[in-house]
From TrEMBL:
SUPFAM superfamilies in UniProt: UDP-Glycosyltransferase/glycogen phosphorylase
A Pfam short name: Glycos_transf_1
Organism in which the protein naturally occurs: Streptosporangium sandarakinum
Annotated Glycosyltransferase subfamily 4-like N-terminal domain residues: 22-196
Protein name per its UniProtKB record: Glycosyltransferase involved in cell wall biosynthesis
InterPro entries: Glyco_trans_1, Glyco_trans_4-like_N, Glycosyltransferase_grp1
Amino acid sequence: MRIALVSEHANPLAAVGGVDAGGQNVHVAALAAALAERGHEVTVHTRRTAPDQPEHVSAGPGLTVEHVPAGPAEDLPKDELLPYMPAFGAHLARRWAERPPDVVHAHFWMSGLAALAAARDLGVPVVQTFHALGVVKRRWQGPADTSPPGRVAAETDIARRAHAIVATCRDEVSELLRMGVGHERIAVVPCGVDLELFRPDGPVAPRGPAPRVLCVGRMVPRKGLDTVVRALCRLPDAELLIVGGTPRDDEAVRLAGLATACGLTGRVHLLGSVGRAEVPALMRSADALVTVPWYEPFGMVPVEAMACGVPVVASSVGGHLDTVAGCGVLVPPRDPRALSRALLDVLGRPELRASLAEAGRRRAVTRYGWPRVAARTESVYLDVLAGRGARVAVAGG
Ligand code: UDP
């Protein structure tokens, strides 16, 4: 198949760990590569963010990244991109009129708007993955939500018009059903993990004797890093490594201040973003990976830690209910006391750590390898092309 992936803000070639560059970049890059590996011709269309970006970049056999001119050729917050989506869609329409794809897969709601506009007159089916839903973001972030005001209505409209919706977890299915999406048009296909990179054997980052707790992710308040810092106060010796963002981010400054106020100077280390290749060694060096966001559409980081055989303590939200439940420890979000209790247990019991490591690794390998995720995504495309809808496929999600 000729497959067009549309990912307006998340460029698969970009470095991750910044405010707007994280799981979606990794997801689109890995999905595109795994689909190309299956013999498809894949083009990822993403917004041009620098004047010197070539229009087309070959990213491997059968895989091209196209930088779409839409708005200024500079990095902009994703919540400021809506005005440029008509230009983005018009560019796609011109491209696809010359050489139509068989199927379009849009990632994030704004990509859905551009893709549906461009595909309309060509009759090419559009599959939508939201990655995050405005209704959930609004619920948790309230007035701090910087999404354009029309986001929830636009997502409802996209969900109605797309040929199929790929949800990444069962919690997202519940949200979509509440938005009025028919279950027959929803398929559940999880995000994946690179099992070559994230494995128990391999280099281990240097460490001392103190128990090590690791957090990895974008430096934004909803990731709940303050909860982890507060929980650390109750753990006598442990150190906390935080990977992601830069020391200049507002959230990093806030966390550094909180660590000082809690008397944790020297025990909390803000490392900033690290390249993907360095993440596994850091994970292997940790006694536990903690991820306690307020909400989480999927959460690739815990699955990466599981694949490395590292015990995971995660908040009981979103994708974690599918991925971590039963092979890690779930705690309520925003509850430092519950998190410190869970960590005391995990850090104090080597046999519990070993059994969580084993169970997590097994689940990552059996459910989340990218070849498997790409094969399931491909079957959604084939169902759509055959006019069979998305056929809800929740098992193993
Ligand atoms: N990541 C990374 N370097 C960093 C911070 C994050 O490579 O400094 C990667 C991390 O390993 C994971 C992704 O960024 O693959 C974050 O995805 P997740 O789904 O956990 O969170 P999101 O960014 O989608 O909210």
